[in-house]
């Protein structure tokens, strides 16, 4: 009976909260109907197909796993580090963003601004007093002004709900520049020219869809004097009033008047220029239309990863490694790395053959293959061994080697010394 009473006493419902008054915390701070820390693209970028390109690349970069890890002397991955920085890169970057959303925010902001800053917001010690700090949370920021050793940034403060300006040392802030700056952010770059052409095309579409009739009324008299012009203005106003007041937009004219329709716009080659610039942008960024519609083959996607995603990932982890890891930490084998899943694009029909080759050549164990195909690892110790399962082993673990018949050893005692010449 006591358990039932305790259960109902501790029960909680979001819509019928029964917590005491002293436990209730009233929300404070600035109120916003939209998410205040979300990336706001500059005027023009959000209204064009450029946003589609930016977003697709940002999503694909965020799908690659970033990690604070320990590497060996050959920069080969050994194990993940147990640090706050690793949690920022793999789990939660701040109270509003997961690690994946944070990386996507970095790429989108970098494409839009050309160069952005990643600021450590919370750390275990004061950043200005020591270089050996561990980052607890971090956010992207817009760079407003450049100084020799500092930068002024606009950063979202998650405690007040406002964007605030700070002056921070360059040595403590990761400054990431877009590796495709000359293609995307230069004033006369391909992307900026495409944005301007798309803006012109949008203006033409708005004029066509504005509801204007675009017609000329030819009157039966010459309009040269002021009285005739006033008479023509009155006639035009009368026809406009008829069309406005009519339920179906019908008006009448005199039999001597002639109406010339000019609603069809003049021909231009803006659309052809847009198609040309779009193709050039795809080629310069190493993209293909099949990447966006999901029909790209393995070779196309490999080219996309190597020519488009790899420079972006290298710029991010290079700056993180340079600013967030001390020289001592790098000497001890700490590094920022990225790991891309190589089997993500492999079809199921080829996965079995690949798994057989990797296990037979002792590259991956059985328990490393099983999660790739969607099965959990097994508890069998032999499943973690790197060995060829196609070769039988005796109880002592001896694996019969290749036949040595070529050397004269046929596996039995023939009475001769095999080492004698």
Key attributes of the depicted protein:
alpha+beta; 3-stranded antiparallel beta sheet; 10 strands; 421 residues; single chain
Can you describe what's shown?
- The longest helix has 27 residues, at 298-324.
- Residues 403-408 and 415-421 have low confidence and may be disordered.
- Helices cover 37% and strands 16% of the residues.
- It is elongated and about 105 Å long.
- It has helices at residues 2-10, 50-62, 84-90, 99-113, 181-184, 190-208, 226-245, 270-285, 289-293, 298-324, 327-331, 348-360, 366-369, and strands at 65-71, 77-80, 115-123, 135-146, 150-157, 162-169, 174-177, 215-218, 258-261, 334-339.
- Among the domains are: 2-184, no CATH class; 348-403, no CATH class.
- It has 421 residues and is α+β, with helices and mostly antiparallel strands.
- The protein has a five-stranded antiparallel sheet.
- The protein has 13 helices and ten strands.
């Amino acid at each position: 009976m006591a358990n039932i009473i305790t259960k109902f006493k501790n029960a909680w419902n979001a819509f019928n909260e029964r917590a005491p008054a002293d436990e209730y915390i009233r929300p404070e701070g600035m109120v916003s109907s939209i998410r205040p820390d979300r990336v706001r693209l500059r005027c023009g970028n959000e209204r064009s197909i450029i946003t589609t390109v930016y977003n697709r690349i940002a999503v694909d970069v965020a799908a690659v796993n970033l990690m604070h890890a320990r590497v060996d002397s050959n920069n080969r991955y050994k194990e993940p580090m147990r640090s706050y920085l690793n949690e920022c890169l793999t789990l939660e970057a701040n109270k509003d963003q997961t690690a994946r959303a944070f990386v996507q925010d970095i790429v989108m902001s970098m494409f839009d601004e050309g160069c952005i800053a990643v600021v450590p917001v919370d750390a275990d010690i004061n950043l200005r007093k020591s270089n050996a700090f561990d980052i607890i949370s971090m956010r992207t920021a817009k760079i407003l002004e450049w100084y020799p050793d500092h930068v002024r940034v606009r950063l979202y403060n998650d405690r007040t709900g406002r964007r605030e300006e700070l002056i921070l040392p360059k040595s403590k802030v990761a400054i990431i520049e877009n590796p495709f700056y000359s293609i995307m952010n230069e004033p006369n770059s391909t992307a900026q020219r495409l944005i301007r052409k798309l803006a012109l095309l949008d203006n033409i579409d708005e004029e066509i869809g504005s509801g204007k009739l675009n017609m000329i009324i030819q009157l039966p008299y010459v309009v040269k004097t002021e009285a005739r012009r006033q008479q023509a203005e009155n006639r035009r106003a009368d026809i406009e009033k008829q069309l406005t007041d009519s339920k179906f937009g019908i008006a009448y004219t005199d039999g001597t008047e002639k109406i010339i329709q000019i609603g069809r716009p003049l021909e231009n080659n803006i659309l052809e220029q847009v198609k040309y610039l779009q193709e050039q942008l795809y080629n310069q960024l190493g993209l293909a239309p099949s990447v966006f519609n999901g029909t790209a083959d393995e070779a196309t996607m490999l080219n996309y990863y190597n020519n488009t995603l790899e420079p972006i990932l290298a710029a991010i982890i290079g700056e993180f490694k340079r600013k967030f890891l001390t020289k001592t930490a790098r000497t001890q084998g700490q590094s920022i790395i990225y790991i891309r899943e190589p089997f993500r694009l492999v079809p199921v029909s080829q996965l079995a053959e690949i798994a057989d080759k990797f296990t037979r050549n002792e590259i991956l164990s059985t328990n490393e293959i099983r999660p790739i195909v969607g099965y959990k690892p097994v508890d069998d110790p032999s499943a973690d061994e790197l060995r060829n399962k196609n070769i039988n082993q005796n109880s002592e673990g001896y694996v019969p080697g290749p036949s040595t018949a070529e050397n004269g050893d046929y596996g039995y005692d023939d009475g001769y010394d095999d080492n004698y010449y």
